Amino acid sequence: MKKILPLLAAAVLLAAPAFASEGVELDHKKWQHQGVFGTYDKAAVQRGYQVYKEVCSACHAMKFMAYRNLADLGYSEAQVKAMAAEFNVTDINDDGEAYDRPARPSDHFKSPFANDRAARAANGGALPPDLSLVVKARAGGEDYVYSLLTGYVDKPANFELLAGLNYNKYFPGHQIAMAKPLSEGQVTYGDGTTSSVEQMAKDVTQFLAWAGEPHMEQRKGMGIKVMLFMFAFCGIMMASKKKIWAKVH
Amino acid sequence: MAHPPKNAEKFANPVVQWIDERLPIFTMLIKEYGVFPMPKNCNYLWSFGGIAMTMLGIMIATGILLAMSYTPHNTLAFESVERTMRDINFGWLLRYVHMNGASFFFIAVYIHMARGLYYGSYKKPRELLWIVGVIILLLMMATAFMGYALPWSQMSGWGVTVITNMFSAIPLVGDGLVTWLWGGFAVDNPTLNRFFALHFLLPFVIAGVVFIHVWALHMTGSNNPTGVEPKSSKDTVPFAPYFSTKDSFAMVVYLTIFFAVVFFAPLALTEVDHFRQFDPMQTPPHIVPEWYFLPFYAILRAITFDISIPFTGILIAPAKLLGVMAMFGSIILLMFLPWIDGNAVKSARYRPTYKMMLLFLLVSFFGLMYSGAKPPEGMPLYIGQAGTVYYFGHFIILFFLSRREKTLPVPNSISEDPCVKK
Predict the structure, then answer these.
(1) Cβ-based contacts of A224 with chain B (< 8 Å)
(2) Which residues of A fall within a CB distance of 8 Å from B352?
(3) Which chain B residue has its CA at the smallest distance from A138's CA?
(4) d(CA A101, CA A89)
(5) pLDDT tens-place string over residues A103-145
(6) Span between the terminal Cα atoms of chain B, in Å
(7) Of A233, A242, A247, which to mutate for an interface test with B (greatest number of B Cβ within 10 Å)?
(8) Which of A101, B11, B30, B161 to pair with A76, CA 20 to 30 A apart?
(9) 8 A C-beta contact, residue B203 and residue B59
(10) With helix as H, strand as E and coil as C, how does B91-128 read?
């Protein structure tokens, strides 16, 4: 058995690349929220929400997000209420008639289009994906989203680009329906951060990462406690096992 | 009517005594989990049966709680799972435990089976025990597959499409069978509904079959690393406190690793397409099943040739049918292992040739796993085909070789095994 273990380990290592993602080498960035102790950069996520609200939300819905979720970013109840009220949503009144009212914190993010067909019709046939889970739903996660947003470069001379599509270094197939979304100084950050394309891409990526996994900090915090408990539990179990088996060995 | 003789007062506690005289739960527990003799040399690989049972319990508990906030409808399933993750208290924890629990259930069961293969635990008198175990594996696979469908993601929907389509390879009835399985002419809401119903039912069936598995185990007792049956009380120790503590320790270590994944890398074993809602109009570029199905998926795709009568062009079996047969055959074959292996020596410790063969089997298992994760072309396909050839070859070679295999001397009893400390 002992002789087989190293070979088993080697076999596992050989099989491991099977699970690695393929494709173009992404522009890897260091994300503060990754790793065992990583937490979200709240300021960046707040800026990212601004980028989403002012740029992305023109085409991309985030149907799993509600305005109340913004409270997790450190906004007060009154602030969240005001942030929700910036949007008008359609509701049904007691007479059964549709009417517009300011959104409440319990409302989900307002979608830019009534339905997928309307979204396609407005975007040359392409459907802008919902962004609630985009970081989890793309190979490469944060790095992919960041790379994609900053990957609009001049197309190689011999590249045949279809009409209505744009060249992107990182998009599979390099032809993407979305036009370059971010340009220098597009948003004016409240905290005075310079809104370079890289900065906005970084911020919105962190916002989207948070949106996809809003309970990450709770999860890791609980995980650390669980691990400490389990390590102690392992120690106690090992000690009792050793003590009991001492008579046998 | 003769009344059974009244038990002598066995228990100091009168309530326990009263219950036990009417329903001997306590007598049974003492017999099966108290004084039950365990070979004293069983190593930690023997803990994985109990670990697998714990995982089954965790899966059932989290599964029932998840079902309370799940909606089995094709337009709502994906959203309801997301709402569970976001809006249910600790819903994210339930789902991550359940998702990763499936993987850790399979890891435990694969190690449990590998231990059985290595130490010959499938041999007389444990043939039925082994066969019941293979049935549990099949039920687990069916359950895991249907559970994978429930979030109704791209991977769910397309995984279901690929796997259910396999049945269309069956001659004559294939296409009708697939329509019947789907409950319609495509993977749609009726498919999801029935998968949910069955995914809820099957774990309880598994629990029942596990009971039979443990029952059969307690008839024969556990095998041990020497493969020599215990001969006297010198060879065994009572289950409690020896193996209750040893197994609990192993279980706690296993759960520690499990929780490390759940809390710090919950998506490590998942495909990104599991976070996109199923779109029947858009095939993902690369459909892969969960890692624990990859070796069998690779066997399915390894068969790329048809069988026909030479020079006539009459097709006997198309590649697809052969692939499906090979895939199911690879598991069904295990049921016959007690008779394929004709050597009386159980433990691979005393069977150097068999030990080498098992190593190759292990390498081919991981080779197949690698192949199953890649598109079926070029090198990965060849690796899958080589793995398939060895997988089946292993059992054919074993059939002939085991009957004339040279084995090393086996100790007379567990206590006389030089590896066992006095």
Answers:
(1) 263
(2) none
(3) B272
(4) 6
(5) 999 999 999 999 999 999 999 899 999 999 999 999 999 999 9
(6) 52
(7) A233
(8) A101
(9) yes
(10) HHHHHHHHHHHHHHHHHHHHHHHHHHHHCCCCCCCCHH
Pairwise CA distance, residues A65 & A60, whole Å: 12
What average pLDDT is seen over chain A?
90
B239-286 pLDDT, tens digit each: 999 999 999 999 999 999 999 999 999 999 999 999 999 999 989 888
From the list A22, A40, A24, A43, the residue with the least C-alpha distance to A32 is A40
The tokens of A8 are what?
A: 């088993």
Amino acid at site B400:
F
**Do B362 and A139 make contact, defined as CB atoms within 8 angstroms?**
no
Contacts of A14 in chain B (CB under 8 A): 366-367, 370
Q: Which tokens in the block code for residue A10? A: 């080697």
Question: Which residues are CB-neighbours of B59 under 8 A, at least 6 positions away?
Answer: B98, B101, B102, B105, B203
Q: How many CB atoms lie within 10 A of CB B241?
A: 16
Tokens of B356: 């080498």
Structure tokens at B295: 């070796």
Angstroms from B389 CA to nearest CA on chain A? 18
The verdict on a CB contact (< 8 Å) between B272 and A212 is no
Q: Which residues of B have a catalytic role annotated?
A: 218, 222, 246-247, 290
Give the chain B residue whose CA is nearest to the CA of A231. Answer: B256
Q: Search chain A and give the residue with CA nearest B359.
A: A4
Give the per-residue pLDDT at A22: 45
Q: ipTM value of the model?
A: 0.90
The answer to whether A245 and B115 have CB atoms below 8 angstroms apart is no
Question: pLDDT grade, residue B3 (50/70/90)?
Answer: low
Q: Which parts of B221-351 fold into alpha helices (H)?
A: 244-264, 294-302, 319-335, 337-340
The size of the A-B interface in CB pairs under 8 A is 116
Q: Does A127 touch chain B (CB under 8 A)?
A: no
